[in-house]
Structure to design on (244 residues):
């Protein structure tokens, strides 16, 4: 039987809680069998700061680059540059929510090759990891010319994650969410130009994780897929993970 500990008073805050409500502090030493509501009651009376400390200032992330030669001779490169992750206090002041703003530039190039490129796609986005889903799950979203929006929650058959876009075009993807899940959030995409280049910029895009009972970690990624009549090549790079 798992012990419920999320949201309970920590050692640092136990003295303050004891002075205000000693009866509720005693709940922290009890092993729960069906007492999720009891644990939450203690958290409401004695709220604590989450284990993850948001960065006070925007963090400049290391640039990433990856070179690859396809089997039919295309010299491919993808890179992520000028990445900044700005973790900010949750707007709703919720203990189980994290949010931040991300900026990055991603570039893909393709030169050489013995066969013409017939199809390609270049994607930049973020992966969000929630240590434990405590209720409605993970939510994420962005604002831009075409704004992806997403949410994760319970639909009656279990928790699920979804993403969609608003603007000139709209799309939808859904997957099952479990505690400890990592969710891919593509933020922008395009095909290689006739000259073999694609450039994607995201600037100050909002990301958030709600109802997460532990650490929330994000990392950027860039993905390139190139197809010719003789070969199909796909690969990706990832930024350094960082907590928000």
């Amino acid at each position: 039987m798992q012990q419920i500990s999320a949201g309970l008073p920590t050692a640092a805050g136990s003295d303050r809680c004891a002075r205000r409500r000693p009866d509720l502090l005693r709940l922290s030493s009890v092993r729960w069998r069906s007492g999720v509501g009891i644990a939450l009651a203690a958290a409401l009376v004695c709220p604590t700061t989450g284990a993850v400390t948001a960065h006070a200032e925007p963090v400049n992330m290391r640039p990433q680059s990856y070179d690859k030669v396809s089997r039919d001779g295309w010299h491919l490169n993808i890179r992520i540059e000028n990445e900044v992750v700005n973790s900010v206090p949750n707007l709703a002041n919720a203990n189980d929510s994290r949010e931040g703003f991300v900026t990055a530039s991603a570039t893909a190039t393709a030169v050489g090759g013995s066969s013409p490129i017939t199809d390609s796609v270049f994607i930049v986005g973020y992966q969000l990891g929630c240590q434990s889903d405590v209720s409605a799950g993970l939510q994420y979203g962005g604002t831009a010319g075409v704004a992806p929006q997403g949410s994760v929650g319970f639909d009656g058959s279990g928790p699920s994650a979804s993403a969609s876009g608003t603007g000139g075009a709209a799309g939808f993807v859904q997957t099952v969410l479990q505690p400890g899940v990592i969710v891919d959030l593509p933020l922008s995409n395009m095909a290689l130009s006739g000259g073999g280049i694609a450039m994607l910029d995201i600037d100050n895009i909002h990301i958030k994780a709600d109802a997460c009972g532990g650490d929330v970690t994000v990392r950027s990624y860039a993905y390139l897929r190139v197809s010719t009549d003789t070969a199909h090549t796909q690969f990706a790079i990832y930024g350094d993970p960082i907590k928000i």
Remarks:
- The first strand starts at residue 59 and ends at 60.
- Residues 109 and 183 are 27 Å apart (CA to CA).
- The chain has a mean pLDDT of 70.
- Residues 59-243 form a domain with the Immunoglobulin-like fold (CATH 2.60.40.1650).
